[in-house]
Each structure stands twice: as C-alpha cells, then as structure tokens.
Amino acid sequence: MSTVPDSQKTPRDSWLQKALASPVLGWTIVLIGALLRLRRYLEDRGLMHDDALLANNIFSKSFAKLLQPLDTGDQAAPVGFLILQKCAVVLLGHDEHVLRLIPFLAAAIVLPLFFLTIRRIAGNSTAVMAIAIMALAEPLVRYCAEAKQYSTDVLWATLVLALAMTAESVSAIAILAIVGAILLWFSHPLLFVLGGIGLTLFITHLHLGKYKLARADAVMGIIWLASFAANYLLITRYYVASDSLHQYWVNQDAFGPLPQSLHSLLWYPKTIIGLFNYPLGILPSHHSQMAARVIASVTVGMFILGLGIIWSQSRRMMGILIWTIALALAASALQRYPFAERLTLFCAPLIALPLAFAMGNEWWQRNLGRASCWLAICAIIFLYPLYIQAKYVIHPEVRYDAKPAIHYVKDHWQPGDSIYLHWGSDVLGHYYLRADPALSVPSNQLITGTYEKNLDVREKTYAGDLLQVQGRARVWVIFSMDPVKDRQMIEHILDQRGKRLVHERFNGCTADLYDLR
Fold it and tell me: What does pTM read for this prediction?
C-alpha cells in the first residue's frame, strides 16, 4: 500500500492547521478590517454628489417629512435609514463625519457578526477565509465612508442570516419574523434575503415533516409581506415609478434582459461573475489583462467548488444563497430592482461564503502539496484586494471633491466676485457654499454650467454659459467630477476671452480665477 512520505505529510499540529484553527487569526483580520474602515472614515474629504443631495433632504426635512418620499435631488433611501441619519445630525450636528457615522458603524459591526456566525456554523477555518474576503473588499470599505445606506444593507442582511441559521424553534422563528418585518423599513434589498430565507426554511421544514415549524415559517412570510406592502404603498412605489432613476440604471445595464436569446441569457452568469469585482473587490477592473483572467478563472473555479461543499454540508445555506440571488435577478428582469454596482453590496456575505467554504476546507491541510496549492490559490484571490488596500492606505483615493476648491474661494472671496460651477460641480458647489461658514453669493453672480450630452454642440453650449460672466473682473471657475476634455474645452474658451489670475489644483478639483474684462 503506497503512503505519503513522512517528509510530505502535514501533521495535525502543522502551522497551517494551527493558524486556521486559531481564533486569534480571525480576530486579527476583523481588527484589520475595522482599522481600514476607520482610516477611510476619518479622511477629511468632501461628500460625494449623491451624498450631498441626500444630506440636503436630511437637513431640510423634519422627521415627519422623512416618512414621505424624498423630493430633493431625485434620491431614494429606506425610511429607517433616513430616520437614523436624522437622529445622528440632530444629536451630533451637521458635520460630514456625522453623516458617515451610521454607515461606518454598520461596516465595522458586520465584521465580528459575520465572523462569529460563520465560525458557529462552519468552523474556524471557513470563518477566517470568509472574514478575510469581507475585510479586504474595497467596495465595502469605500461605502463605510459615504453617507448612503449600502453599508447598512450588508449589516441587516448578515443579521437576518445569523438568525436564520439557528431558526429551529417557534420562538426563534418569531424573533426572526419580528426583526425582518422591522428591518424591511431600513433596507430595500433585504426583501430578497428574507424571501430566500423564508422559502428555504418553509421547504426544509416541510420536507423534514416539521409541520409546526413550517406553519410558523408561513406566518413569518405573511408578516414580512404585510410589512413590505405597507412600506411599498407608503413610500417605495414612488421610487420605482421614478423615470429618471429608472433611466439612469437602464444606462448602466443594471436590469436583466428577458431570456429570449443566448446573448440575453449570458447577461446572468456575467452579472454573477461581476459580483466578485463588485462587491467583493477580488477582480481587477481591466478584465482583458492576463492577470485579471487568471484571477477570474481561479475565483470562479473556487466558487463552484464552494457551492458543492455547501450543498453537501448545509442545504439551508445553499437554499438561502440560491433563492436570494434568484429573487434579486428576477426583480431585475422585471425592471423593479437594478442589480449592479452599489445596489449589490447586500450580496457580499452570501457571495463570500462559497469561496470561504472552498478555501477553508480541511482537504487542503492534509499534506504539504495541497497546502502549497492552497497558498497559491489564496495568493491569487487576495492579490488584488491586498494591493488596493495597501495603495489606498498610502495614497487615499479621491475621485472628486469640491470642498477644498470652495473653501479656497471662500478664503479669497472679494466683494463683486462671481463664480461659475461646471455642471459636474454644481450640487457640491452649492452645498459647500452654504456650509459653515456660509458664503452668500447673489444669484446673478452664481452661474451653474449646463450639461450637454451631445459632443458636437458641447463647446457651443459652454461658450454660451460663459457669456453670463463675460466682462467681469474676477470670476471663479470650479471643476470637480468632470471629464478632462470638458475642463480643457472651457479653459480654452476662457483663455481666449480673458486672463487667468489664479490656478489652484486640489485632490479631485480645481479653482481658477479669471479676469474676463
């Protein structure tokens, strides 16, 4: 009988088994993930475009008016999240860190909750892999420092998953029913997670002949549907009916096509694979590169392997995963839920699980050859997340940020000055002009640029906008969230009409002062 040579065996107390079996490693990763989120939260950068629009709603509306559909800036957010944000600003003030406090806390709390949940149901090795994926996922880190609800979506999804995995009594199901009914007012996509949980528990208990529990599951489902119906009729239906929101997501290819051809069918597997990039942050953005293809291939292979392991070990978890994704994709195909980008963050715990089950399986620990293969796979899957986190620790990401430019203008403002906000700077420009210390600019001295989609007439449109400030001695021009060609185009027009006196560049924006006499 052939045996593995002693030199090739991995004993029970090998470094790999000891590391993966030790809770210390898992809690260390939880701490690292929390510190990454804390650093991002503490960065002194301005709000994003949508954050500012949502903040205007929160600041200007009473608690009662937040129970109604938002009417400022074409924003959509769960009413429960809005109430939490309003409580924060009422108690702590109108500060940007206050607006980001609830998302940050949600992003930090989800780490230990997820780790403990997976460790209880699948063991420490799988939990370590699961929390490593979640801790390093750049989209999850990013949205902890933005004033929107997507981090809380992840927390609520993780919470109901934790409750669902131990729902084996009528009292446990009752608690899950109450928690789910409440949280439906705090998260839009939680409906899909609860739908997956409800269907899985009902089918499982019915199959096992646990009819008392199946009846409790059915009552739970009715309670959830009643809560969702009330929320939908009072608030959410207005967001679903918004033509501008719908068109925005149509342009992002966020709605699943009806499966009428092979091309339309391929949208679904491509979208699921895309979840490894967003929200898990494993795949590089440039999928044509060889490295990206290798990472994608290994990740997909491990995901499929993990699904097989979950099927053999936890049919309940498998059912919740499949039903949740299926319901979300069905809603997308019916044009009721955009399944793309930040609206998929709630999927992160579910999509991380198959990868964690595959990489945390004890099969890899049985000899040095398998352990070496495991290390190679982990290196491939964690390569990009580690690189991105290291990069942003050294050089924080700033996509656009109007705040420093507006602050510079406030510090150097003189009576009679005018200001031109490029269309990509309009919302943030107005927001920070009103921020403390506020700068009151007469309406005839504050010009907002026009957005022109048609490239053929864009320069003519900008030239017309700038006629409103022609002949003035001091005109501030603010750029943020703008294509480079737009800035070059407008600067070319201004250089022909006048003289640039000041040019200040900041991370994510510029402030120029022109004499246009």
Answer: 0.92
